[in-house]
Queue: 4 jobs
Job 1
Amino acid sequence: MAELIPKQFLFRFTLACPKVARMPTKGNHIVDLPDQARLPHLGEMDGLPHFADLWMGWNEQGLGLAWRVWGKTEPIHGESDRPKSCDGLSLWLDTRDTRTIHRASRYCQRLTIAVHDGGSDGLPSISQQKIHRANEEAPQADLSSVRLARHPLDEEGEFITTSKGKPAPIRNYQMEAFLPAAVLSGFDPDVNRRLGFFVRIRDHELGDQISGTGPEFPYWEDPSLWLTLELVDG
């Protein structure tokens, strides 16, 4: 028998996001996040899918994140005219962590990172979407400064070295992103170290992995359903 009330509703979660001074980096890996930056998958409390790991870190320049998807047998999926349907990650942020509101404010923002943009080159991309029923929309950000990197993985989770010739289809992968402070509406760690946040990792083969309550609750528009991310020093 299904639970009438999700177990996650019995708690109010605050997750630690460590400060990472050297970010973004200049190498192939945009972010190098430590083990303590790995966020727990709270959806497991209610039996929700778990096929990816997620890391997040911060510094005064912005937010860094990485996620790793494994267990795939099909290539990554992209649709050029439907970024929200591509394999990738959607991030909802509230830079004021206003947990009492049910409609987004101008400090609330939704960003979607596509692992494959659906184009002929199959590159990753980022876009900003409006939040449904928002009281006030966040300003449209200039996303040209966002850095993205995608790294294919083998079945053991090891990075695949790029070889000459036609590349093999990418299945398992690690995706990395650095979001500069200028992209994040109201981001100012000197003023506020607590952010409302919610993450959905989408995979055409494996489904949706979400960071909180299930799809029967409107997390895509209701900030009161989001988690709290606390920016901590190390």
Job 2
Amino acid sequence: MPGAVPSAVPGAVPGAVPSAVPSAVEDVGPYGLSWQDGIVLVQLRCGKANALNPRTLAAIDQALDGAERGGARGVVLTGYDRFFSAGLDLVTLYDLAPAALDAFMREFDRVMLRVFAFPRPLVAAIGGHAVAGGCVLALAGDARVMTIGEARIGLNEIRLGVPFPASALEIARHA
């Protein structure tokens, strides 16, 4: 079935979509981890739309640390509900001082490049919208699977003329 989660995904039911994967065994607040046969499912749960802010980037980083420490053979990264990730959390970032915003963008680059260069296969299981930075996060994986339906994926900042970080451009170019 197109858009279905492969049965190798931890806790997946054949034919189930990524957002329907049962909740993770290890709940660590903004994300959950579940393991099966050496594959770790990382489910991001950072706010209503998994918008990328300092907390979300830290969650991705910590989840990858856990996968590496646990000797994962591969990682499946997914969101929840209607969002894989809505991209940068503009509301939070708007309130940052210029130096803090620069630091955040450096951290965004570092985490996206970490996902991109992760030493084990990393699949983005997209069960909801993946726009702007959320699309970059999905593109940083080795492969992507997406459900059929209303979910959208894309780099809308290009159409709007918003500057595109060099790391994101390189990730998109190599995806």
Job 3
Amino acid sequence: MIDELRKLDDYDVPAALDVELSLFTAALALYVDLKAQEQLSAKLDALEKARRDAAEKEAYKDAATYASDIGKEIASRYGERVSQAARELQKDISGKQVRSYQDALKTFEKMSSNPGWKLNGKDAAAVAQALRALDKATLGDNMTRLGKAFGVTGGAIQAQGLVEAAATGFQTGEWKPFLLEMESAVLGKIAGSAAGAMLGITLGLLGVTVTGGVALVVGGVLVGLASSYFDPEKVDQINNWVMDAVGA
């Protein structure tokens, strides 16, 4: 049969077979085209993944460098003790679990209940003014950027509420709003390490410019606030050396 068909010219091929051959040719062309598109799509997906991975790696390197620079600034502004406490918080940060607000508040009250942490009216007003003078959008970006260095993989931190709660805390000694604001800024709004995001918030706020003994208290309080959420043992240590340093 095949041999007989081969002997036929175009005019002798039955119409039905001609249609069938045309359909087969079209189907084969479509298959080849779809296969080519599938392979092209796979290559494009691989290239896009490689681009994202490279961008993420570069962003992490940039964030890590920025965190290192911030660490140097903290040592310059707040002294070696505050700087060391901040560095110690960074150890295994991405694996640390965030405690509840109630547990964090109970821990932080070990510090806030001590009158040695209270700033006088003039100093408290100066710190609050310095905090409120910070550019909130830039600060939020910096906090998000710092969080990336400590295991945060997505989401952005909004600084407005955090700054206002911190300013109020230094003025009134009431830190419940700040602890709630810190929890609210992180839980359910970022991906990755919540503790890393909280550390990013703390380091960002430590960018505020203060001096002398006030700097030691401000730095100790901010690091203590973060510690109360994910490193409670650190609160006792901070409380002891800061209070000793200010002579309380």
Job 4
Amino acid sequence: REKISSYTANMALTGFTAPKLLWVRKHEPENFAKIKKIMLPKDYIAY
């Protein structure tokens, strides 16, 4: 957590996308390997 904070000057809260992706990478590597792109809902709507 401190490492992320030192890079971004923000705490990595659980609702953020990056911590969720890190969790999937650690606990569900087969699903993480299938990821091609990441989009937030607002970006998907604009797409």
